[in-house]
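=== RUN LOG ===
request id: a7f3
mode: sequence -> structure
chains: 1
length: 641
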Amino acid sequence: MACLKLGSRADVFRKQGQDWYCTTGLPSDITVVVGEPSFHLHKFPLLSKSGLLERLIREKIEKGEDSCVIDLSDIPGGAKAFELAARFCYGVKFELTSSNVVHLRCAAEYLEMTEDIAEGNLIAQTENFLTQTVFKSWKDSIKALHTCDGVIDLAEKLQVVKRCIDSVATKSCTDPDVFGWPVMQYGGPTQSPGGSFLWNGISTGARPRNCSSDWWYDDVSCLSLPLYKKVISAMEYRGINQDIIVGSLNHYAKRRLPGLNRRKSISDVSSCLSATTLTAMPSEEEQKYLLEEIDRLLPFQRGVTSCKLLFGLLRTAIILKASSSCVSNLERRIGLQLDKATLEDLLITNMSESDETLYDVDCVHRILGHFLAMDQETGGASPGLGDDGQLLASPSLMPVTMVAKLIDGYLAEVAPDANLKLPKFKSLAAAIPDYARPIDDGLYRAVDIYLKAHPHLPESEKEELCRVMDCQKLSLEACTHAAQNERLPLRVIVQVLFFEQLQLRSSIAECLMISENLEGGSRQLGLPISGEQHRGVGWPLGARENQALREGMDGMKQQVAELEKECSTMREEIARLGRSRSVGKSRLFFLGFGGAKPQICSTKDAAPTTATTASEDDKLAVVKADSSPRLNLSRQRRTSL
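=== RESULT ===
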């Protein structure tokens, strides 16, 4: 830390209790009271440097008062600043540093220690030190700015605050790699052109550390909020990157808001607490005010602020009961980038006294609403599809699809809560648009967990809950589980079985179509060759392949016939199961199929497929391998039912 030594005389000031005495051998003839301390001094050294004290002493003499007592309790900087000013008046040695120069500059202005009173007076000395030393150093500028809090009004009037902020903002916007680290301490004439430091003209071989753009975060975080806001505004005016600004705000918030550190590692928390203990822990009102100000400083732009910081601020705002506008702004900021959040981020503890749920589902619902509104504005109504119906991007990479998967995971996490009401659960599940879920396996899992945690739901409410699912979008594994799930209503089980059979028939038809295309392509690629060439080396291999194809298709025909029989048997068992539950035949009719007959897999419908397969004698054997797993699954379902 830079310093300037002033004065030449030995120290003649002595302190006894709260009082200061000047031991020059002469009795004091003036007493200056600065709060509780009193300074017993001499008139001549004071009035020769201070215009204010000269005027006050003259007034005392003109009034004929025997004792000369002057009250300067309102002097900027208090008793410490007046002590240094008195030392300057007496010519006693003391050091002018970046820690006391601001208070001393304000005290000199208050005491009117100008050049008109004496040459080289205290105002000129402090101004020269600020300009030539403090403002050229990063560390000294920070320390000087930090001391402006106690004399903020006069310091701003004297432009000290502005000049400190300009110095800090300019240096923070400068690339530290150009000058080494820190910006000023190791960037001066003591550094050689190669980067090593010089001691008495000899290179030490030491090189400065490589510094990132966040090198100034910790120094600036020691400033009070009003000064910090001024520094951030000055940096933004100079065009510093928004990511760097947000990083500084994040660092500052973690230093000042203890609630943000509750999910950090032990080492990180201990470092933050050690830094926080240097100053008094802010009260709840101070933390609330700080949180609302940080919310105003954060840029309202997608992707600039991390989700973890926003969720941490939101949790802290809810705990501190910040203003509704602050909470709403944070929810809107999170909604703009909800696709970058994690399941852990969404688990916000419910602090409401009226709602007994463990997690704040309403808050997540509002955040989801902000995201969907943003997605709608940016053209998310028909995501991933072009004018010709072609998929423009993979659905798994779309933000709305990622959010749908995140919400399904959140629903599964909150579903075991016994206090979570059905309308709230269903409302959040139904808020996701249909196009956002390529498959409904995650939603089915959440519904199943909710039904397991709420076993006493009536049948009508179970059916109402299951309507949020689309049975056509369940995978084969999910269909297999749902067909055996006793918690699901019978109507849903029938729907699952129906669509599962449709998927099975569709898969078989696709396999047959592929085999036809492959066979047709191989025939088109055949070239006219001579008889000798036809009976060459490749002819026996082609004959064996054709024989294998015929055997595979024969096995396929037999499996399809068995599958049709099993479908018919399954249909009868489902009807018998419905009658045993006293539901009636109407239970086998389900909504959404326009009065179709309740045939799960009719043999009449399968007849064309069988006829088609009978005419094909050389289909690919791969169809046999593809249909076998489905046959085994069908047998397993029949056994379980």
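=== NOTES ===
The mean pLDDT is 76.
The beta strands are 3-6, 13-16, 19-22, 30-33, 38-41, 69-71, 94-97, 198-199, 202-203.
=== END ===
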